[in-house]
Design a protein that fits this description.
The chain is mostly helical.
Amino acid sequence: MPKPSPRRDGREAALQFLFGHEMNRDEEADPADLDAEMAAFWEIRNVGSDLAREFAGELASGTVANLESIDEHLVDALENYKLERLTVVDRNLLRLAIFEIAFSDHIPPRAAINEAIEIAKRFGTEKSPKFVNGVLDRIRKSLKPDA
């Protein structure tokens, strides 16, 4: 398997962090603990470059910081699904891509969607890529119709 690009590696690391963050989340945890949680994550997760690590940190911290707004967009775009019904991987992959589409000016929305689809093929179920594409396309059209 070819080595992933630094951005793909960063996205995959961010997804893995978000997965662990959700599974171990303490509702009363201090948001400042995110730095400590990220540091612990980097002790067990290796990335191919400093660029990948920096990008993963930007994506993960941005997603966590904007989670309430991201989940509102996600719930609005889900058809016949509840947020809680999504697999943890799909939910966090969608959150990550929504952060890129809605809050990141340097990432084209279609690139964020394409990357999410590719990552869904690797980490999700057989149905994940098509599902992720449909949800993210609805979100892209509602947030950035000209993109």
